[in-house]
Every structure is written in structure tokens, then in C-alpha cells.
Design goal:
With 374 residues, the protein is α/β, with parallel strands linked by helices. The protein has two domains: 108 residues, Alpha-Beta Complex (Aspartate Aminotransferase, domain 1), CATH 3.90.1150.10; 248 residues, Aspartate Aminotransferase, domain 2 (3-Layer(aba) Sandwich). It is 36% helix and 14% strand. It contains eleven helices and twelve strands. The strands form three sheets. The chain has a seven-stranded mixed beta sheet with strand order 2-8-7-6-5-3-4, with helices on both faces. Strands 9-10-12 form a three-stranded antiparallel beta sheet. The chain has a two-stranded parallel ribbon with strand order 1-11. Strand 5, helix 7 and strand 6 form a beta-alpha-beta unit. The protein starts with a helix and ends with a helix. The mean pLDDT is 96.
Length: 374
């Protein structure tokens, strides 16, 4: 992933391609494809294959725990981050007197459950200033009524990376709220320190280079009571097929309550392989390799006639850079024609730099932007 040789052997689909779209779709290494083939071989065993499926499930949870700083028992895996947040809303069971704080730099999955008309709680928006979230702007939104503060560690919108400890400190000082952290745009790309987070959620098809169909959920054991979802199902229930199964049900506590139905075993094989690959390379090595590329790209973008959305604050920069331009769609088309792949959502261009990217990739991108913007 970090050398010419490993890029060619592990990511043959990137040969001749300049790919900067890992924040939307990570390109999986061949090891992930091999894991999916192994799932098929195990599935061909019928019921006997479930022994292998269960082993992959346990391995994926254990690996997720390593990255989150939690034990295997504190990890659940559902179908996607959106499902995770909807189950979190079910667990909180908010009332009219409750408040929730969301940010305007978050992906809809972590904010919209609290904005639905069926949610009785009041929702306040922690708004960014010049692309950055400031803790001093969060504090006035906190009160004794605040039940939840939800934030992305790295914003999908412009790549701003929050500093989590001051946020948790402020929430603990000014409210009784829980802190939910979406690490989708950080997991596998930057080292994580999630100590103090009450709920951790991530997708699986981006920076960890796995597949769709997974939602990683971390619930510290001391927060199991708050994050136990009263959802129907069977895999998430205690004694789902017992003698009183049609009289009463009880959810498994904490993260286990988020695993509502039959596990998505193909995704679990891919998640295990993706996380193993990232662990083998090392997140610290990925960050050390990519950080100079990111900072150089950001500095050069600021020399172009574009509106850079990513704040020029090195300590708050991870792997995503974003900018706006009136001709964003045209620019994206030109880049694509040159086999340079970025994201063009809602009039902005988003550049995501991962461990398989090189200095030559960045120079090719910048050269094409300079030419196109003349």
C-alpha cells in the first residue's frame, strides 16, 4: 500500500489510475476479494459453514475493538451506520424535555434520526465557523436537558478533524449528555484516541477498504444501559426461542443489541480482511506517508482560484480536502477524462488521500487543476 511494489501487487485495479475518492469508496486490496471467495466456499458447506461464519464474526469484532480501544464484547456489527444511529435513537427513547446537539458538518446518518418529526426532543445545531467546529460554540448549546451530542471525528463535508478530548470535557462539565462519535472518515486513515466516547460508529466501505453492508458499533461496558436498543429480531435478543418467547423479550445489553438479525456474513469476511490489511500496514505508517501529501495538496489548492473549504489548520486536517468552484462539474469531468477520480457532491470537489496514493498522484491532480482553471 505504501510502496510501488505493494500497490501493484495488492491494488492492481489502480494501475494507470489516480484515485482520490476513498472517502466515498475505498479500493479493496486483493485480500478482501479472497475473503469474499472464502465466504462462498464456506457457504457451500451449508449449515456446517456457520462455524466458519461465526469465527469471522468474532474476528471482525475483535479487530474493530482493537481500533476502537474496546474489548470484543463491547463491539456490535449491524448493516450500516444509518441503521446504527436509528437503533441508537431507539435506545435513547427521547422525551419532549430532552435536547440533542448535532453539527452542520456531519453526514445525514448521524443527525437525521433526531430531526424526524417523530422524535420529540429539541435538536440544536452546533454550527461551524469558517469550516471549523469550535468548542466555545458548543458550550452555549449544553444544559441539564441535553441527552446527546453527536459529532463526526472527521467531517465528510470538508475534512475538518475535531479534537475529541476538549469536546468530551465540555459535555461532561455542562451537561449529563452522552457523546456519540462517527469515525467513518477516520478509521483506517488516522490513529484514533476515542477514550471517553459513549458510542462509536463507522461504515465499512471507505478507508478500511472492506465492503458495503457493515456498520461497526462500539459501546463501552459502562454505557450498556444507555445504549441497549429495544428492537425486535432474534440475534439481538436473550433466549429468542425460549418457552416464553411469545410472552416477553429482552435485548442483549449494549453493542449486542445493535446486531438485530442474521449477520451479514459476506461483509464480515470483507471487514475482517480489510481491518487485518490496515493493521498489517499500520495506521501510523499510513498517516505518516499521506500527511505530507495532504498538506502539500492543501497548500497548492490555496494558490488556485477556488474556495477552499478545508480550514488551514494542520492539527485539524486528516485525509479529506474540499473546495468549491462555479465550474465544479466541468472540472470534475476534465479530471475524470484524465483518469483522475475525485468526488463531486453538491457543487464541491472532495479529494481523499489514502495510503495507496503517491506524490506523483498529487502532482498529476494539481497539474490538471491548474490547466483546467486557466
Amino acid at each position: 500500500m505504501l510502496t510501488t511494489e505493494s500497490r501493484r501487487s495488492d491494488f492492481p485495479s489502480l494501475e494507470g489510475k489516480t484515485y482520490f475518492n476513498s472517502a466515498a469508496e475505498g479500493v479493496p486490496p486483493l485480500a478482501v476479494g479472497e475473503a469474499l471467495q472464502q465466504y462462498f466456499r464456506d457457504k457451500q458447506l451449508g449449515m456446517d459453514g456457520r462455524i466458519q461464519h461465526a469465527a469471522q464474526w468474532e474476528a471482525a469484532r475483535a479487530l474493530t475493538g482493537e481500533f476502537f480501544g474496546l474489548s470484543t464484547g463491547e463491539i456490535g456489527i449491524c448493516s450500516c451506520s444509518s441503521e446504527a444511529y436509528n437503533l441508537a435513537a431507539l435506545a435513547l427513547n427521547l422525551k419532549d424535555a430532552d435536547d440533542v446537539v448535532v453539527t452542520d458538518l456531519d453526514f445525514p446518518a448521524s443527525s437525521t434520526p433526531w430531526l424526524q418529526p417523530s422524535c420529540p426532543a429539541k435538536t440544536s445545531v452546533w454550527r461551524n465557523r469558517n469550516g471549523a467546529l469550535r468548542v466555545e460554540d458548543l458550550i452555549p448549546l449544553l444544559s441539564a436537558k441535553t441527552r446527546l451530542v453527536t459529532v463526526s471525528l472527521v467531517s465528510f463535508y470538508n475534512g475538518f478533524m475535531v479534537e475529541l478530548p476538549p469536546i468530551i470535557e465540555a459535555v461532561r462539565k455542562y451537561s449529563p449528555a452522552l457523546v456519540a462519535v462517527d469515525v467513518t472518515q477516520a478509521l483506517g486513515r488516522v490513529p484514533l484516541n476515542l477514550r471517553g466516547a459513549d458510542l462509536i460508529v463507522s461504515s465499512t466501505h471507505k478507508w478500511i477498504l472492506a465492503s458495503h453492508g457493515g456498520g461497526l458499533v462500539g459501546v463501552p461496558k459502562e454505557r450498556t444501559a444507555e445504549w441497549t436498543a429495544a428492537a425486535g429480531g432474534w440475534f439481538n435478543l436473550e433466549d429468542a426461542f425460549g418457552p416464553k418467547s411469545f410472552e416477553t423479550v429482552k435485548s442483549k445489553p449494549g453493542a449486542a443489541s445493535f446486531m438485530v438479525g442474521m449477520p451479514n456474513y459476506p461483509a464480515l469476511y470483507a471487514i475482517r480482511a480489510g481491518l487485518e490489511y490496515i493493521r498489517g500496514v499500520g495506521v501510523a505508517s499510513i498517516d505518516a506517508h499521506t500527511r505530507p501529501l495532504v498538506m502539500h495538496c492543501l497548500a497548492e489548492l490555496r494558490k488556485l482560484p477556488v474556495e477552499v473549504l478545508t480550514p488551514n489548520e494542520p492539527e485539524h486536517v486528516a485525509g479529506i480536502l474540499a473546495f468549491k468552484h462555479p465550474r465544479a462539474t466541468e472540472l470534475n469531468a476534465r479530471l475524470h477524462a484524465a483518469n483522475i477520480h475525485v468526488m463531486n457532491p453538491s457543487g464541491r470537489l472532495r479529494i481523499a488521500i489514502h495510503g495507496y496514493n503517491t506524490a506523483d498522484d498529487v502532482e498529476k491532480l494539481l497539474k490538471e487543476l491548474r490547466t483546467s482553471l486557466k
